Amino acid sequence: MNARDYLHVLESLTRKAGSGRLENSLIIAIADLADQIALSLDLPPIERDRLLMARATALGGRPDLAIAKIETILRRIAGL
């Protein structure tokens, strides 16, 4: 997958986040997505660190903020 593909996955998670249900499973899904992106894309170390911080944000109970951080990172990587 590339950064644009991950943006589509993130959009799906964003819709789930808006529903307010299943917050714990959403937090885990966001953290897993951040891990998957960090492992599958060839990223500079700073972007990998930013993804890990977004993961920590999700696990800290702020999935909405984590989604925004991951989206910003993916857009920067994709050149959008």
Automatic annotation (TrEMBL):
It comes from the Bacteria. This is Uncharacterized protein. It comes from Caballeronia calidae. The lineage of its organism: Bacteria, Pseudomonadati, Pseudomonadota, Betaproteobacteria, Burkholderiales.
